[in-house]
Design goal:
This protein has 665 residues and is mainly alpha-helical. The protein has 32 helices and seven strands. Strands 2-3-5-4-6 form a five-stranded mixed beta sheet, sandwiched between helices. Strands 1-7 form a two-stranded parallel sheet. It starts with 10 loop residues before the first helix and ends with a helix.
């Protein structure tokens, strides 16, 4: 047992060394990620992924790699005396020289039996945390398997065709299983070896563009092996549950992962405004399965929704994907750095000298002198005083302010340093009336550019005193007092900071308001304008509807039609197939179930002509097409009208069942 350590505490220096090395790796990843703030989310996700893999590889590399001793630790031995030691012999006292062997051995440290419980309890606590984290991950995989057993395999040709088209666009070659859950589960991806995409029960009611967007996002997770990196991050959090920087890295990994998948969806040609609308609606109406969350990659987390919408709608963002060579280079470079850190064994700066010469020097002094003189030189004491002086940094600067963050953990300090939070900024925000801010508040406010002047300006616009979160949201999307003045002059007055944030996030400005007023939407509220802008309603779109004969369109009607992609091309296609003069509700119903001009002409080819818009909607909703009609005719059922076809389809009658009934006498 090492001298000076309590019984059972031999593992504490190893744990401290592991924590220090993991911190260095994650600090390096945070610095690289901050330098790459203009790069795509996929690049930053790669940086954090390599860092998490490096942290997991640390214990393994520490065991298998040869040790590399580096003199980094301060010496714990007392400095050698600068003058010859003397032993003054008093009358009646005979000084005997100590045994030389005793001088060469350290004095043993005696601990009581009661001292042993503390390190053992700490070891038990660490082990319990690791076990709990791994058990939580195992429950997640069990939850995914349970969800797969309860869900139904999707055989719908339309879904399969959409999935195939999305996979082709993403150049995905891995087979993926489509499942439909029984509840309103959030669209998600699970499975390490055999990936599956889980859809909610109401997914069949989605429009085609939402289907394509959801499938593209989930298949992007499959292409990027995000379920694997999610599992690795969960393992790292389980093994290093006591290290806050590891949790911060796992959180950054999730954020950049979702942004990278959003980028891939946009690269397939999906419009940013449409995709943002889909994300918002799905996040509001669906829930993530709690039990399976550690092993499942869900499409939208409400906590990340605002930042994702801003990312999607920012056309200036880079959405590139790193090449295979770049990924390989990043992994190799990361493992080299981790291997060097893992092999490093910090030792005392004077350890080599002490181990070889201290005993010999002591023997020489004993043989040459008559005694000893204890004590330390003034130079030695002054050096130790300088060595022990505290160093000033972000932590000490924050601690000296009147209102430091409630708990400046390592990951908080990393984040604060990265965005420039210092004592001066905290003091300025305190003077503006914002005291007791948490580390997350400070980082968020500083990152988006909230200044004391901005806080005072926005607190004077009539919404009362704004919270730190409200200020952050407003500043992130670009809400200023000047923008608010322009909106009020245009006749729109957001009632709250949240309403203004939503409007500005989707790009509502005075020019857009003026255009909508010009088109007749004089009573459109702030919420109406936000919805219109979010789905991409423009002046040209509304004018096209009017030219195609769609009249009396309200703000909600325009939003619904645009979200369903009812445009001039679609209306012209229907008119060419014999449908025209339709109202908004009828058009929405036709488009929602997928009635097109091609579908109408297909039904006409099997004798179903002169059908009303409502009947076409019913036929399409029941998945009745020309192929189904031909199958029934081959089975002996000819001259069926639309109502009879719908009744047969609703009863689940297919070609084989129809043949069986035809043979029944």
């Amino acid at each position: 047992m090492s001298a000076g350590l309590m019984p059972g505490a031999e593992w504490l220096p190893l744990l401290a060394e592991l924590a220090a090395k993991a911190t260095l790796i994650l600090l390096l990843a945070a610095a690289v990620s901050a330098l790459l703030w203009r790069a795509s989310a996929a690049v930053r996700h790669l940086v954090w992924c390599v860092a998490v893999i490096g942290v997991l590889a640390l214990p393994v590399f520490s065991v298998v790699l040869p040790a590399w001793e580096v003199p980094l630790l301060p010496s714990t031995a007392a400095p050698a005396s600068t003058a010859p030691a003397t032993l003054v012999e008093q009358p009646g006292f005979h000084a005997e020289m100590p045994d030389r062997a005793l001088l060469a051995e350290p004095m043993p440290v005696v601990h009581s039996a009661a001292d042993a419980w503390l390190p053992r309890a700490a070891a038990g606590l660490v082990a319990a945390g690791v076990l709990a984290g791994l058990l939580w991950l195992a429950l997640g995989f069990w939850g995914v398997a349970r969800m797969g057993r309860r869900a139904q395999v999707v055989h719908d040709p339309e879904w399969l065709r959409s999935a195939h088209e999305a996979a082709e666009q993403l150049q995905l070659r891995r087979p993926v299983l489509l499942l439909r859950d029984r509840g309103a589960v959030m669209p998600a991806t699970g499975g390490l070896l055999w990936p599956a995409v889980v859809l909610p029960a109401n997914a069949d009611q989605w429009a085609d563009d939402r289907r394509r967007a959801v499938l593209a996002h989930e298949l992007a997770h499959v292409k990027r092996f995000d379920t694997l990196t999610q599992a690795l991050a969960q393992v790292a959090c389980a093994l290093f549950w006591w290290h806050p920087a590891v949790w911060y890295a796992a959180r950054r990994l999730r954020v950049e992962r979702e942004r990278a998948c959003d980028d891939l969806v946009l690269r397939t040609g999906t419009r940013a405004s449409d995709y943002a609308s889909h994300l918002l609606e799905i996040a509001r109406s669906h829930r993530s399965p709690w039990l399976a969350s550690p092993a499942l990659v869900s499409m939208a987390r409400p906590s990340q929704l605002e930042s994702r919408l801003l990312w999607v709608l920012d056309a200036a963002r880079s959405r590139g994907v790193p090449s295979a060579g770049a990924k390989l280079l990043a992994v190799v470079a990361g493992l080299l750095i981790v291997g060097s850190l893992a092999a490093m064994r910090p030792v005392e700066a004077a350890a080599a000298h002490q181990s070889g010469s201290l005993v010999n020097d002591a023997r020489a002094e004993i043989e040459e002198d008559d005694g000893f003189q204890s004590g330390r030189s003034d130079d030695a004491r002054s050096k130790d005083t300088r060595k022990d002086a505290p160093k000033k940094g972000p932590a000490s600067a924050l601690a000296q302010t009147d209102t430091p963050p409630a708990r400046a953990e390592i990951d908080d300090l990393v984040a604060m340093r990265a965005v420039g939070v210092d004592a001066e900024y905290i003091g300025q925000m305190r003077d503006a009336g914002y005291t007791g801010l948490s580390s997350d508040d400070l980082v968020s406010m500083r990152a988006v550019g909230v200044t004391p002047e901005y806080a005072r300006e926005m607190n004077g616009v009539g919404w009362g005193r704004l919270t730190a979160d409200e200020l952050t949201g407003l500043r992130a999307v670009g809400v200023t007092a000047a923008w608010l003045v322009d909106m009020r002059r245009a006749g729109v007055d957001p009632r709250s900071a949240d309403e203004a944030t939503g409007m500005r996030a989707v790009g509502v400005d005075a020019q857009f308001v003026a255009q909508m007023r010009e088109l007749g939407f004089t009573n459109a509220s702030a919420s109406d304008l936000t919805g219109m802008r979010a789905v991409g309603v423009t002046r040209e779109f509304v004018r096209e509807l009017v030219r195609e004969g769609v009249r009396d369109v309200s703000a909600n009607d325009a939003t619904s039609l645009r979200a369903l992609r009812v445009d001039a091309d679609y209306l012209a296609d229907l008119r060419a197939a014999g449908l025209s003069g339709l109202d908004v509700e009828t058009l929405s119903g036709l488009r929602a179930v997928g009635v097109t001009g091609a579908y109408i002409r297909e039904l006409a080819s099997v004798g179903l002509t002169g059908l009303s818009a409502r009947r076409l909607t019913d036929l399409r909703a029941h998945r009745i097409d020309a192929a189904y009609v031909r199958e029934l005719r081959e089975a002996g059922f000819a001259d069926l009208n639309a109502d009879q076809l719908i009744r047969l389809r609703a009863s689940g009658v297919d070609r084989d069942q129809a043949r069986g009934r035809a043979r029944t006498p």
